[in-house]
């Protein structure tokens, strides 16, 4: 690998990947959207080119002279006022990039999917790369990530494209300027805005480990294979309690039945649709997250040499970064009301 194009390079995982590649001495070309927030690339002496996955000629131009592609550009969100954006970017945009990669005759392509593109086993049983997709009927992000993943694998298995797929779990860490859905859970908890919990679980992973996993996939990944990049399986309550402890908060989290959480999610979404302010959660997110999204990362460990670090240490770094950047404490009346409600409930004898 001599020169790599990274799409979505200014994004959360993308910018961390750019740093990992540069540390390896690999020449990097960072593709960014015109007018995109590039704070995550500040201070990096990296070649930048403007491009858009919805504009095939710009992708062709960005790939010129590169031997490797890391495709990360996608809409990673629990909500959008215009739902069609998920299908335009995550599905059609990915098709455009795959055809451009075919024309460019690259040595290796690492395609960033998500655990959202995989199937889920029942209960707390660990899921892996072999579980057939069974999440139809979920939100637009879930569906588009699965469909685009399947097209990418078809390009590899039937079209001869030298492509491997990586499936990050729930990433968090420094540089989450958006923030991402996982980062928002951490941020809302650290601000005292997240006081509800329900019986479910997820696999959390430091974004830096995910970035290193991409490089390992480029070096050692087998064409047409998928590799889950995760770390620790935790219940929702365990995650919230960890974040609160790291943030120095004493919060009593309220376990609510899933139907109640769904109603709350619907209310948050309706408020977001009216105001344009991203919701704390949505009904779709609750429907997906009510499962135990526990994953087995053995394949990445054994085949790629992937070994993530302790989540507690990286959670501390993530909260410290949010605090330095002014995300904590969040200003306004809503955090105060929610935090006060949580403190009142903590005093109740149940």
What Rg is obtained from the alpha carbons, in whole angstroms? Answer: 20 Å
- N-end to C-end Cα span: 59 Å
* Weakly predicted, low-confidence segments: 332-350
Shape: globular
Count helical runs: 12
Structural class: alpha/beta
Q: What proportion of the residues form beta strands (DSSP E)?
A: 5-15%
Topology pattern, helix = H, strand = E: EHEEHEHEHEEHEEHEEHEHHHHH
Text of the CATH class of the domain at 3-177 and 204-231 and 295-311: Alpha Beta
Largest sheet entry: 7 strands, parallel
Report the average pLDDT across residues. Answer: 92
Fraction of residues in helix? 40-55%
Kindly report the spatial arrangement of strands forming the biggest sheet. 3-2-1-4-5-6-10
Task: Give the tally of β-strands.
Answer: 12
Per CATH, the superfamily of the domain at 3-177 and 204-231 and 295-311 is NAD(P)-binding Rossmann-like Domain
CATH topology of the domain at 3-177 and 204-231 and 295-311: Rossmann fold
């Amino acid at each position: 690998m001599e020169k790599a194009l990274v799409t979505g390079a200014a994004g959360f995982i993308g910018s961390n990947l750019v740093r990992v590649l540069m540390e390896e001495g690999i020449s990097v070309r960072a593709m960014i959207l015109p007018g995109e927030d590039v704070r995550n690339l500040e201070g990096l002496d990296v070649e930048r080119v403007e491009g858009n996955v919805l504009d095939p000629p710009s992708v062709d131009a960005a790939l010129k002279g590169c031997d490797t592609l890391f495709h990360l550009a996608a809409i990673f969100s629990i909500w959008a006022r215009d739902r069609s954006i998920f299908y335009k970017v995550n599905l059609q945009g990915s098709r455009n990039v795959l055809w451009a990669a075919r024309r460019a005759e690259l040595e290796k392509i690492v395609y960033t999917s998500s655990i959202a593109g995989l199937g889920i086993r029942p209960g707390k049983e660990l899921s892996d790369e072999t579980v057939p997709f069974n999440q139809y009927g979920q939100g637009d992000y879930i569906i588009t990530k699965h469909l685009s993943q399947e097209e990418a694998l078809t390009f590899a298995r039937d079209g001869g494209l030298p492509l491997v797929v990586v499936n990050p779990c729930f990433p968090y860490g420094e540089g989450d300027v958006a923030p991402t859905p996982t980062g928002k859970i951490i941020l809302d908890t650290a601000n005292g805005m997240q006081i509800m919990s329900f019986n479910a679980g997820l696999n959390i992973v430091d974004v830096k480990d995910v970035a290193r996993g991409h490089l390992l996939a480029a070096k050692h990944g087998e064409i047409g294979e998928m590799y889950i990049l995760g770390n620790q399986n935790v219940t929702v309550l365990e995650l919230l309690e960890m974040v609160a402890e790291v943030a120095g908060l004493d919060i009593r989290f309220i376990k609510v039945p899933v139907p109640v959480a769904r109603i709350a999610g619907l209310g948050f979404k309706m408020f977001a649709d009216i105001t344009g302010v991203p919701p704390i959660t949505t009904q779709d997110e609750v429907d997906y997250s009510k499962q135990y999204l526990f994953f087995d990362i053995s394949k990445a460990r054994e085949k790629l040499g992937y070994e993530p670090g302790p989540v507690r240490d990286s959670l501390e770094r993530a909260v410290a970064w949010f605090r330095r950047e002014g995300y904590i404490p969040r200003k306004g009346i809503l955090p105060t009301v929610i935090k006060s409600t949580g403190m009142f409930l903590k005093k109740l004898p149940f």
